[in-house]
Write a structure and sequence with these properties.
Shape: globular
Number of helices: 11
Radius of gyration: 19 Å
Helix content: 40-55%
């Protein structure tokens, strides 16, 4: 089983210096490199203190400079908000500067504040995302790119640099809805599984993805399919539960409040249900390291979890993950 970290850059209540948010993340990344994590996946967000990282590619260069073996993932590049040629250049440059260690994850985005302020009509988000992904991949592999689409048109442009990894870095699509999963499977893309779905829904989506892959003539065998899970660990169950509850409240307020007013994403709690409690009951892995390790191994058997992408909800959680769970994973 592989273990990675989905690295947010949260600035809750702005109660510390912003510089310390980045310093702490980079210190963690150095630890990941030394202790056997597979990859760090850097989360891109805009216009919100939920995660103050508007450029995963810039932070990725710093992460690459401070590591030697850790893979550098984008979790994700929000493709509709970029000019696709610039996106292709930036990720390829990161791949060159990291010595060929990039995992490229791409996503559509969901926060209405991002669409509004970048001037991207929400109704165009899917078509822009699909077009951008096609352009980036062709920019990496075509000697000169010619393209005519609904949003972009190019004629014989040479896009440099090309990535170090050939024909290009491994690629994942963030896919939450069945429509997004079916689109990715139909084109043979691997997918990133989201941190907000219940464990049982992850298993159902994984089977749906496998079925759609097969229908399109592709196989799930040998694919790495990171499943992002929020994680809260403590030396007691009560301590871990309190960390999980605070994290769940922060997520609910950030993702589903008026600040984001998400596009195409609904609070998955049933009407009248407590969304914070839903995270505690169905989404966040929380408890002592021993209890959470047992849960991880259960999910490995029940839903095929073989690449756990953890989003630690506290510094103590990251420390216990590194010291108590990573060495004991099969």
């Amino acid at each position: 089983m592989k273990l990675g970290v989905l690295q947010f850059f949260s600035w809750p209540e702005r109660r510390v210096e912003l510089s310390s948010v980045y310093a702490r993340a980079l210190d963690r990344i150095e630890i990941m490199d030394r202790t056997g994590f597979d990859a760090v996946w850097l989360a891109e967000h805009h216009f919100s203190s939920f995660s103050v990282c508007p450029s995963v590619h810039m932070v990725g260069v710093l992460a690459a400079a401070r590591t030697t073996r850790l893979r550098i993932g984008t979790g994700v590049s929000l493709a509709p908000f970029y000019h696709p040629l610039r996106l292709a250049e930036e990720v390829a440059l990161l791949d060159q500067l990291s010595g060929g260690r990039v995992n490229w994850g791409a996503g559509r985005g969901f926060a209405r504040v991002e669409f509004e302020n970048f001037g991207v009509p929400p109704e165009e988000s899917t078509s822009r995302f699909h077009e951008a992904v096609e352009i980036v991949l062709r920019a990496w592999t075509d000697e000169r790119l010619s393209f005519a689409g609904a949003h972009f048109r190019f004629d014989g442009v040479e896009v440099l640099p090309k990535p170090m990894q050939l024909p290009h870095p491994p690629v994942w699509m963030a896919a939450t809805s069945e429509g997004a999963i079916e689109w990715a499977a139909g084109r043979g893309f691997s997918i990133l599984m989201d941190p907000h779905a219940a464990h049982r829904d992850i298993g159902r989506k994984r089977q749906f993805y496998a079925d759609k892959l097969a229908a399109a003539g592709h196989s799930i065998d040998g694919r790495e399919l990171p499943v992002a899970r929020l994680l809260a660990l403590g030396d007691s169950t009560s301590k871990a539960t309190e960390v999980a509850r605070r994290g769940a409240q922060w997520i609910v307020d950030s993702y589903f409040g008026a600040q984001h007013n998400p596009v195409g994403v609904k609070d998955p709690a049933a009407p009248g249900a407590d969304p914070v409690q839903r995270y505690l009951d169905e989404v966040i892995l929380h408890g002592t390291p021993e209890a959470v390790l047992d849960e991880i191994l259960r999910l490995r058997e029940e839903i095929g979890l073989d690449y756990l992408l953890c989003a630690p909800l506290s510094h103590e959680t990251f420390t216990l993950l590194t010291e108590k769970i990573l060495p004991r994973l099969p």
